[in-house]
Design a protein that fits this description.
The chain has 443 residues and is mainly beta. It contains five helices and 31 strands. The strands form four sheets. Strands 14, 15, 16, 17, 18, 19, 20, 21, 22 and 23 form a ten-stranded mixed beta sheet that branches. The protein has a six-stranded mixed barrel with strand order 4-5-10-6-9-8. The chain has a six-stranded antiparallel beta sheet with strand order 2-12-11-24-25-13, with no helix packed on it. The N terminus is likely disordered.
């Protein structure tokens, strides 16, 4: 289970109520500029970049699966002026109702030396995603096609750096250790053809068409029965995979024996199988069989060439890393800041006794530290059987204060080793309690 980020909702916007005119897109601010490097943070397999919107710097996820620029989390401190607003209704993945939003046009967006002054932005009036609590850092929105369509870009996951190139001055170099595949576009979303091995008994690989989805933290999604071979394996567990514009997305988590991207073969990737209900809008593109997410993409240096409709992969240091998942049965979320008292001995503050002994005095300070709580507990998991409940505030993990952890490090603690003993000290209704359980392998 990996529900910390879950997804940015592949095929995020289907069925708009209105239509808009095409944007001019992003370009280099200086005509002579041929490239621009941008650093990013890799959080739970997702790319987080700083984006300046109408003079205000916000944090966006770079999502190749999104055909629109969306803002879904603005506090009073982050408030920006949005231009020419119009009320609209959006519909996306999930089984719930549509959501209210505002369409704002002719906005100015900067990413270092890359800019547009004609950006359309969709502002969701209620933060249905709540990504900030799931990622442990503030996330304001997502950006995809409109940023990428005019450039060739290199995503270096190992160095956490993106380089934007002018496609008129840059061409992909021949690379003996690389794989180049064509990109196909449908509704401004990129698709590639790969192969999956769905059965350990047979070595046969099945051709599948996958959305290239840098905004999904999972490795693979497959749509059940989009091909007769695509069915949930016998060994799986049902889980909440994420939240879309229209509600919670459910599916079955499992593993498959193999994935081929060109001649690159990846062994035993985790995969989530989605039913028709959760993906009915995404299945409007009948050729699509699923999504290729950040859990796979981060294992490569990736060159995305939208103008020439191609993509190049080269293995990086993550290529052979195992595909882990959260084995705790707990979905942990960031719960804001808490004031914590810290103590430390001050060697400059001491007292000598008559017997020449030294006493050092302790200094106390107060700092704001992160706090975390349990959002959901998987039914019949070891954590559930131990007695943990949604809403429990986490105080300690294996005798270490919870505020020492970043959210992603806490999830890593739950993903390391089968049968590992976990001891959680929590607070429930003002009462502190301690629970013990072991990590369990379910797939």
């Amino acid at each position: 289970m990996n529900k910390i980020v879950l997804l940015i909702v592949t095929a995020i916007l289907f069925g708009f109520v209105i239509r808009i005119n095409a944007q001019n897109g992003f370009r280099f601010q200086k005509k002579s500029k041929s490239k621009q490097r941008v650093s990013f943070k890799l959080i739970n397999n997702l790319i987080v970049i700083p984006v300046e919107v109408n003079g205000k710097t916000l944090s966006f996820i770079l999502d190749t699966g999104a055909n629109k620029t969306i803002i879904f989390n603005l506090s009073k401190n982050d408030s920006i002026a949005v231009l020419n607003p119009k009320k609209i209704i959006l519909k996306g993945l999930g089984g719930g109702a549509s959501v209210d939003a505002v369409l704002s046009e002719n906005n100015r967006i900067h990413i270092k030396n890359i800019f547009t002054d004609n950006a359309s932005i969709y502002v969701i009036l209620k933060d249905v995603f709540d990504f900030s609590s799931k990622m442990g850092t503030t996330i304001h929105g997502i950006i995809g096609y409109n940023l990428l369509k005019n450039f060739t870009i290199k995503i270096n996951y190992s160095a956490e750096e993106i380089t934007f190139y002018n496609p008129k001055k840059f061409r992909l170099k021949k690379c003996r250790k690389c794989e180049v595949l064509p990109l196909q576009f449908h509704r401004k979303k990129p698709y590639i053809d790969v192969q999956v091995q769905l059965d350990t008994v047979y070595s046969t690989f099945t051709n599948v068409k996958m959305l290239l989805d840098s905004g999904g933290s999972d490795a693979l999604w497959l749509f059940e029965n989009s091909k007769k071979e695509i069915k949930t394996p016998k060994k799986f567990f049902n889980d909440i995979l994420g939240e879309g514009l229209s509600g919670i997305i459910y599916g079955n988590r499992s593993r498959i024996p193999g994935l081929k991207i060109g001649d690159f073969e990846i062994k035993n990737p985790t995969v989530s199988f989605l039913d028709t209900l959760s993906t009915r809008l995404a299945r409007r593109f009948e050729q699509r069989n699923g999504s290729l997410g950040g859990g796979v993409l981060k294992r490569f240096t990736v060159w995305l060439d939208y103008p020439n409709k191609q993509i190049m992969f080269k293995k990086n240091k993550f290529f052979k890393a195992p595909f882990n998942y959260n084995m705790s049965g707990l979905d942990i979320m960031y719960n804001g800041k808490q004031l914590v008292r810290e103590e430390a001995q001050d060697i400059s503050n001491y007292k000598l006794s008559e017997k020449n002994s030294v006493t050092f005095f302790t200094n106390f300070s107060y700092k704001f530290k992160p706090s975390y709580k349990i959002k959901t507990v998987v039914k019949n998991s070891n954590a559930d059987k131990a007695g943990l409940k949604a809403g429990d505030l986490i105080i300690r993990i294996n005798r270490k204060p919870a505020y020492y952890y970043k959210l992603k490090d806490m999830v890593n603690e739950f993903s390391e080793k089968v049968n590992k003993k976990i001891q959680l000290k929590i607070k429930r209704d003002g009462i502190e309690m301690t629970f013990k359980f072991r990590l369990e392998k379910r797939i």
